[in-house]
Specification:
Blueprint lengths: L5 E9 L8 E2 L4 E3 L4 H13 L3 H4 E9 L11 E6 L2 E4 H7 L14 E3 L12 E3 L8 H4 L5 E5 L1 E4 L23 E2 L7 E2 L2 H18 L1 E2 L9 E2 L4 E2 L1
Amino acid sequence: MINMTKKYVDIYNMTSDHNFGPYHDGDLLSLACCMVKIRKRVGKLWNSMENPEKNLEYWVVGRVASSLSSSKKNHLVYFMKVDNVLTFAEYGRKYETRKNGNGRNDNIYEFDEGKTDEFEPSNYKVIHSEPGHSPEHDIGKGKFVLLSEDYCYFDWRNNPYDEKLGRWGFDELKWVAPGKNGPFRRKYDFENTKKIIEKLENIKLDNCQKFEPNFNEDRRCGNQNKIC
């Protein structure tokens, strides 16, 4: 078992944003059906560590891709600090699945409890069909569901986060090497990772204001009934 604190940041560009991947409800953000390589990587690392809740600090950041909005390119969509990692079977047991318009939007697979292998896609039934998604893709390739109560989701379409930092304010940081996943990821060295995490923490402190929840319109910060 690894027994030392690790800090990581994954930054990627989002080509869609319709509260599915990731999904958030004001209290909890889940990444279950997109970014399979990130989910698999985080899940493996989480499960390799002793007390990952204390010894692992893993942030995932989504920005606007040019194909989503050329005028808002690189604006923040969301960021999350991973609080927990579950298999899809565990996710379905712990949280309400998406049936008859209820449940979590991304909880669309039901595990056959007569089976034992929670990573085998054929052991799951699709209970809500979503274009481009299947057990083979989401479970077979991604393996895990990432959860966070420590997150911030931005209304980038109507009220983008600070135009001066619209390109994230991270372009000045050293680009060490492209990630193995292609052009949507950048890999930062330790010092720059620390700077990014500090910036995320400051953005949370400076830009989350209390609000009366309007779940049809507002983007919100996890766990504190706040809007970003």
